[in-house]
Fold this protein.
Amino acid sequence: MTLELRNLTKVFGGRGKPIVRAVDNVSFTIAEGETFGLLGESGSGKSTLARMIPRLIEPTAGEIIFQGNPLTHLNERDMRNVREQIQMVFQNPFSSLNPRMTVRELIGEPLLIHKRASGAALDDQVRDMMKLVGLNPEHTNRFPHEFSGGQRQRIGIARAIILNPKLLILDEPTSALDVSVQAQVLNLLIDLQRSLKLTFLLITHDLSVVRYMCDAVALMYLGSIVEQGNVNQIFKQPKHPYTQALMRDIPSTNPAQRMLEHVSLEADIVSAPWSGQGCRFSPRCPAAQIGNCKTVEPPLIPVGDGQLGACHLIQPQVNQN
Ligand code: SF4
Protein backbone atom coordinates (compact mmCIF):
# COMPACT_ATOMS: atom_id res chain seq x y z
CA MET A 1 0.00 0.00 0.00
CA THR A 2 1.43 3.36 -0.98
CA LEU A 3 -0.77 5.82 0.87
CA GLU A 4 -3.24 5.62 3.71
CA LEU A 5 -5.19 8.56 5.12
CA ARG A 6 -6.85 8.12 8.50
CA ASN A 7 -9.50 10.62 9.61
CA LEU A 8 -7.67 13.49 7.96
CA THR A 9 -9.19 16.84 8.91
CA LYS A 10 -8.44 20.48 8.15
CA VAL A 11 -10.27 23.26 9.97
CA PHE A 12 -9.78 26.88 8.90
CA GLY A 13 -10.91 29.95 10.85
CA GLY A 14 -11.41 30.44 14.59
CA ARG A 15 -10.36 33.50 16.65
CA GLY A 16 -13.42 35.44 15.58
CA LYS A 17 -13.48 34.09 12.03
CA PRO A 18 -16.07 31.57 10.86
CA ILE A 19 -14.93 27.97 11.29
CA VAL A 20 -14.79 25.94 8.08
CA ARG A 21 -14.13 22.21 8.13
CA ALA A 22 -12.56 22.15 4.64
CA VAL A 23 -11.64 18.47 5.00
CA ASP A 24 -13.64 16.48 7.51
CA ASN A 25 -12.54 13.07 8.72
CA VAL A 26 -11.39 11.63 5.40
CA SER A 27 -9.95 8.11 5.26
CA PHE A 28 -8.90 6.04 2.25
CA THR A 29 -6.02 3.92 0.99
CA ILE A 30 -4.27 3.83 -2.37
CA ALA A 31 -2.59 0.62 -3.46
CA GLU A 32 0.77 0.65 -5.23
CA GLY A 33 0.44 1.28 -8.96
CA GLU A 34 -3.21 2.31 -8.64
CA THR A 35 -4.87 5.49 -9.92
CA PHE A 36 -7.23 6.76 -7.25
CA GLY A 37 -9.60 9.53 -8.31
CA LEU A 38 -10.88 12.20 -5.96
CA LEU A 39 -13.92 13.73 -7.59
CA GLY A 40 -15.64 16.88 -6.37
CA GLU A 41 -17.00 20.29 -7.26
CA SER A 42 -15.07 23.45 -6.47
CA GLY A 43 -15.35 24.00 -2.73
CA SER A 44 -15.48 20.28 -1.94
CA GLY A 45 -12.06 20.35 -0.24
CA LYS A 46 -10.25 18.07 -2.69
CA SER A 47 -7.35 20.45 -3.39
CA THR A 48 -6.86 21.16 0.33
CA LEU A 49 -6.75 17.42 0.91
CA ALA A 50 -4.18 16.99 -1.88
CA ARG A 51 -1.89 19.64 -0.38
CA MET A 52 -2.09 18.10 3.08
CA ILE A 53 -0.51 14.84 1.90
CA PRO A 54 3.00 16.30 1.38
CA ARG A 55 2.13 18.71 4.24
CA LEU A 56 2.15 21.84 2.11
CA ILE A 57 -0.93 22.50 4.29
CA GLU A 58 -0.72 21.16 7.86
CA PRO A 59 -3.60 18.89 8.89
CA THR A 60 -5.62 19.83 11.97
CA ALA A 61 -6.10 16.16 12.87
CA GLY A 62 -5.69 12.68 11.44
CA GLU A 63 -2.85 10.63 10.07
CA ILE A 64 -1.02 10.32 6.75
CA ILE A 65 0.80 7.01 6.28
CA PHE A 66 3.09 6.87 3.27
CA GLN A 67 4.72 3.53 2.48
CA GLY A 68 4.11 2.40 6.05
CA ASN A 69 5.53 5.55 7.68
CA PRO A 70 3.39 8.12 9.52
CA LEU A 71 4.16 11.62 8.20
CA THR A 72 2.30 13.98 10.48
CA HIS A 73 4.97 14.09 13.18
CA LEU A 74 8.05 14.31 10.94
CA ASN A 75 10.22 17.39 11.24
CA GLU A 76 10.81 19.65 8.24
CA ARG A 77 14.12 18.02 7.27
CA ASP A 78 12.64 14.50 7.22
CA MET A 79 9.58 15.82 5.39
CA ARG A 80 11.85 17.26 2.68
CA ASN A 81 13.18 13.75 2.04
CA VAL A 82 9.65 12.35 1.87
CA ARG A 83 8.64 15.06 -0.62
CA GLU A 84 11.16 13.62 -3.10
CA GLN A 85 8.83 10.63 -3.21
CA ILE A 86 5.55 12.58 -3.35
CA GLN A 87 5.38 15.07 -6.21
CA MET A 88 2.56 17.25 -7.52
CA VAL A 89 1.44 18.25 -11.00
CA PHE A 90 -0.71 21.37 -10.93
CA GLN A 91 -3.67 22.46 -12.98
CA ASN A 92 -2.28 25.52 -14.71
CA PRO A 93 1.15 24.83 -16.18
CA PHE A 94 1.61 28.52 -17.04
CA SER A 95 1.22 29.90 -13.55
CA SER A 96 3.03 26.99 -11.89
CA LEU A 97 6.19 27.47 -14.01
CA ASN A 98 8.45 30.47 -13.33
CA PRO A 99 8.39 32.42 -16.64
CA ARG A 100 11.98 33.65 -16.15
CA MET A 101 13.46 30.17 -15.91
CA THR A 102 14.54 28.10 -18.92
CA VAL A 103 13.25 24.58 -19.35
CA ARG A 104 16.64 23.28 -18.26
CA GLU A 105 16.39 25.27 -15.02
CA LEU A 106 12.76 24.31 -14.45
CA ILE A 107 13.18 20.58 -14.98
CA GLY A 108 16.63 20.47 -13.36
CA GLU A 109 15.75 22.53 -10.27
CA PRO A 110 14.56 19.56 -8.14
CA LEU A 111 17.89 17.81 -8.82
CA LEU A 112 19.77 20.86 -7.56
CA ILE A 113 17.54 21.41 -4.51
CA HIS A 114 17.86 17.79 -3.44
CA LYS A 115 21.58 17.67 -4.39
CA ARG A 116 21.07 14.78 -6.81
CA ALA A 117 23.00 16.18 -9.80
CA SER A 118 24.62 19.30 -11.21
CA GLY A 119 26.57 20.43 -14.29
CA ALA A 120 26.80 18.02 -17.22
CA ALA A 121 25.10 15.18 -15.31
CA LEU A 122 22.11 17.44 -14.67
CA ASP A 123 22.02 18.45 -18.35
CA ASP A 124 21.95 14.80 -19.39
CA GLN A 125 19.13 13.98 -17.00
CA VAL A 126 17.10 16.98 -18.13
CA ARG A 127 17.45 15.99 -21.78
CA ASP A 128 16.50 12.37 -21.01
CA MET A 129 13.46 13.59 -19.11
CA MET A 130 12.43 15.87 -21.98
CA LYS A 131 12.57 12.92 -24.38
CA LEU A 132 10.56 10.78 -21.96
CA VAL A 133 7.70 13.30 -21.80
CA GLY A 134 7.70 13.95 -25.56
CA LEU A 135 9.59 17.28 -25.67
CA ASN A 136 12.44 18.11 -28.02
CA PRO A 137 15.66 17.84 -25.93
CA GLU A 138 17.25 20.56 -28.04
CA HIS A 139 14.84 23.10 -26.57
CA THR A 140 16.45 23.20 -23.11
CA ASN A 141 17.19 26.94 -23.32
CA ARG A 142 13.67 28.00 -24.21
CA PHE A 143 11.27 29.70 -21.79
CA PRO A 144 7.75 28.53 -20.85
CA HIS A 145 6.00 31.10 -23.07
CA GLU A 146 7.67 29.55 -26.12
CA PHE A 147 5.69 26.33 -25.59
CA SER A 148 2.03 25.42 -26.10
CA GLY A 149 -0.25 24.66 -23.13
CA GLY A 150 0.16 20.90 -23.61
CA GLN A 151 3.94 21.21 -23.86
CA ARG A 152 4.03 23.33 -20.71
CA GLN A 153 2.14 20.62 -18.87
CA ARG A 154 4.74 18.13 -20.14
CA ILE A 155 7.42 20.37 -18.58
CA GLY A 156 5.45 20.28 -15.30
CA ILE A 157 5.27 16.50 -15.48
CA ALA A 158 9.02 16.19 -16.25
CA ARG A 159 9.77 18.38 -13.25
CA ALA A 160 7.55 16.18 -11.08
CA ILE A 161 9.10 12.85 -12.10
CA ILE A 162 12.79 13.76 -12.37
CA LEU A 163 13.41 12.72 -8.74
CA ASN A 164 11.88 9.31 -9.46
CA PRO A 165 8.97 9.65 -7.03
CA LYS A 166 6.57 6.89 -5.94
CA LEU A 167 3.37 8.95 -5.73
CA LEU A 168 2.20 11.67 -8.10
CA ILE A 169 -0.63 13.93 -6.99
CA LEU A 170 -2.26 15.23 -10.16
CA ASP A 171 -4.41 18.27 -9.35
CA GLU A 172 -6.74 18.83 -12.33
CA PRO A 173 -3.82 18.08 -14.67
CA THR A 174 -5.71 18.64 -17.91
CA SER A 175 -8.57 21.00 -17.08
CA ALA A 176 -6.67 24.11 -18.30
CA LEU A 177 -5.89 22.44 -21.65
CA ASP A 178 -7.78 22.32 -24.93
CA VAL A 179 -9.92 19.20 -25.24
CA SER A 180 -7.81 18.00 -28.20
CA VAL A 181 -4.64 18.10 -26.06
CA GLN A 182 -6.16 16.60 -22.90
CA ALA A 183 -6.12 13.01 -24.17
CA GLN A 184 -2.46 13.29 -25.23
CA VAL A 185 -1.43 14.39 -21.73
CA LEU A 186 -3.58 11.69 -20.07
CA ASN A 187 -2.04 9.05 -22.34
CA LEU A 188 1.44 10.30 -21.46
CA LEU A 189 0.59 9.93 -17.76
CA ILE A 190 -0.70 6.39 -18.33
CA ASP A 191 2.54 5.46 -20.17
CA LEU A 192 4.70 6.99 -17.45
CA GLN A 193 2.74 5.21 -14.75
CA ARG A 194 3.47 1.86 -16.39
CA SER A 195 7.13 2.48 -17.18
CA LEU A 196 8.05 4.18 -13.89
CA LYS A 197 5.70 2.17 -11.63
CA LEU A 198 3.99 5.28 -10.32
CA THR A 199 0.95 5.53 -8.09
CA PHE A 200 -1.48 8.38 -8.88
CA LEU A 201 -3.88 10.41 -6.78
CA LEU A 202 -5.93 12.24 -9.40
CA ILE A 203 -7.94 15.26 -8.28
CA THR A 204 -10.58 16.30 -10.78
CA HIS A 205 -14.09 17.54 -11.37
CA ASP A 206 -14.19 15.86 -14.78
CA LEU A 207 -16.14 12.60 -14.84
CA SER A 208 -14.72 11.49 -18.16
CA VAL A 209 -11.14 11.85 -16.87
CA VAL A 210 -12.06 9.61 -13.93
CA ARG A 211 -13.59 7.02 -16.21
CA TYR A 212 -10.56 7.07 -18.51
CA MET A 213 -7.84 7.01 -15.86
CA CYS A 214 -8.95 5.65 -12.51
CA ASP A 215 -9.16 2.26 -10.83
CA ALA A 216 -10.98 3.55 -7.74
CA VAL A 217 -12.77 6.78 -6.98
CA ALA A 218 -14.07 8.73 -3.97
CA LEU A 219 -16.66 11.48 -4.26
CA MET A 220 -16.10 14.43 -1.97
CA TYR A 221 -18.89 16.74 -0.92
CA LEU A 222 -18.26 19.69 1.43
CA GLY A 223 -15.07 18.17 2.81
CA SER A 224 -16.32 14.65 3.32
CA ILE A 225 -16.42 11.45 1.25
CA VAL A 226 -20.02 10.53 0.43
CA GLU A 227 -19.34 7.53 -1.81
CA GLN A 228 -16.33 5.40 -2.72
CA GLY A 229 -15.73 2.32 -4.83
CA ASN A 230 -14.09 1.01 -7.95
CA VAL A 231 -14.84 2.86 -11.16
CA ASN A 232 -17.31 0.27 -12.46
CA GLN A 233 -19.31 0.34 -9.24
CA ILE A 234 -19.47 4.12 -9.14
CA PHE A 235 -20.42 4.55 -12.79
CA LYS A 236 -22.73 1.53 -13.10
CA GLN A 237 -24.33 1.17 -9.67
CA PRO A 238 -24.00 4.45 -7.78
CA LYS A 239 -25.71 4.29 -4.38
CA HIS A 240 -25.64 7.87 -3.15
CA PRO A 241 -28.22 10.39 -4.48
CA TYR A 242 -25.37 12.80 -5.33
CA THR A 243 -23.49 10.20 -7.38
CA GLN A 244 -26.74 9.03 -8.98
CA ALA A 245 -27.49 12.59 -10.11
CA LEU A 246 -23.97 12.95 -11.55
CA MET A 247 -24.14 9.69 -13.45
CA ARG A 248 -27.63 10.37 -14.81
CA ASP A 249 -26.43 13.62 -16.28
CA ILE A 250 -23.28 12.42 -18.02
CA PRO A 251 -23.64 13.32 -21.66
CA SER A 252 -21.85 10.87 -23.91
CA THR A 253 -20.53 13.27 -26.52
CA ASN A 254 -20.33 16.88 -25.44
CA PRO A 255 -17.11 17.38 -23.45
CA ALA A 256 -18.16 20.88 -22.40
CA GLN A 257 -21.01 19.39 -20.38
CA ARG A 258 -19.25 16.60 -18.60
CA MET A 259 -18.05 18.68 -15.65
CA LEU A 260 -19.71 18.40 -12.29
CA GLU A 261 -20.85 22.03 -12.42
CA HIS A 262 -23.26 21.12 -15.20
CA VAL A 263 -25.09 18.49 -13.23
CA SER A 264 -28.73 19.45 -12.72
CA LEU A 265 -29.11 19.17 -8.97
CA GLU A 266 -31.67 21.18 -7.06
CA ALA A 267 -29.25 24.02 -6.33
CA ASP A 268 -25.55 24.62 -6.45
CA ILE A 269 -23.08 24.17 -3.62
CA VAL A 270 -22.99 27.91 -2.82
CA SER A 271 -26.69 28.74 -2.95
CA ALA A 272 -27.65 25.77 -0.78
CA PRO A 273 -25.38 26.03 2.28
CA TRP A 274 -25.34 23.22 4.82
CA SER A 275 -26.34 24.23 8.35
CA GLY A 276 -23.75 21.87 9.88
CA GLN A 277 -26.49 19.52 11.10
CA GLY A 278 -27.73 16.34 9.47
CA CYS A 279 -26.61 15.20 6.03
CA ARG A 280 -24.36 17.75 4.34
CA PHE A 281 -25.99 17.00 0.99
CA SER A 282 -29.56 17.51 2.30
CA PRO A 283 -30.02 21.12 0.97
CA ARG A 284 -29.58 19.82 -2.59
CA CYS A 285 -30.76 16.25 -2.27
CA PRO A 286 -33.84 15.33 -4.32
CA ALA A 287 -34.45 12.37 -1.95
CA ALA A 288 -34.01 14.28 1.36
CA GLN A 289 -36.50 13.38 4.05
CA ILE A 290 -37.61 15.53 6.95
CA GLY A 291 -36.47 13.20 9.75
CA ASN A 292 -32.93 11.86 9.91
CA CYS A 293 -31.64 13.70 6.83
CA LYS A 294 -31.94 17.07 8.56
CA THR A 295 -30.71 15.99 11.98
CA VAL A 296 -28.30 13.04 11.79
CA GLU A 297 -25.19 12.94 9.61
CA PRO A 298 -25.08 9.56 7.83
CA PRO A 299 -21.80 7.66 8.38
CA LEU A 300 -19.78 6.22 5.49
CA ILE A 301 -20.64 2.51 5.64
CA PRO A 302 -19.83 -0.60 3.57
CA VAL A 303 -22.55 -1.35 1.05
CA GLY A 304 -21.01 -4.49 -0.50
CA ASP A 305 -17.96 -5.52 -2.56
CA GLY A 306 -15.80 -2.81 -1.04
CA GLN A 307 -18.14 0.01 -2.04
CA LEU A 308 -18.88 2.65 0.64
CA GLY A 309 -21.74 5.13 0.90
CA ALA A 310 -22.96 7.80 3.33
CA CYS A 311 -26.75 8.11 3.08
CA HIS A 312 -29.64 7.08 5.34
CA LEU A 313 -31.38 5.47 2.37
CA ILE A 314 -28.49 3.13 1.53
CA GLN A 315 -28.89 -0.40 2.80
CA PRO A 316 -25.79 -1.50 4.72
CA GLN A 317 -23.89 -4.61 3.66
CA VAL A 318 -25.29 -7.71 5.32
CA ASN A 319 -22.56 -9.83 6.88
CA GLN A 320 -23.00 -13.42 5.61
CA ASN A 321 -21.01 -15.04 8.44
FE1 SF4 B 1 -30.22 12.67 0.65
FE2 SF4 B 1 -30.93 12.04 3.14
FE3 SF4 B 1 -29.30 10.46 1.76
FE4 SF4 B 1 -28.44 12.81 2.62
S1 SF4 B 1 -29.06 11.09 3.90
S2 SF4 B 1 -28.09 11.95 0.63
S3 SF4 B 1 -30.29 14.05 2.40
S4 SF4 B 1 -31.43 10.92 1.28
Notes: Residues 252-263 have pLDDT under 50 and may be disordered. The chain has two domains: 3-214, 239-309. The first strand starts at residue 3 and ends at 14.
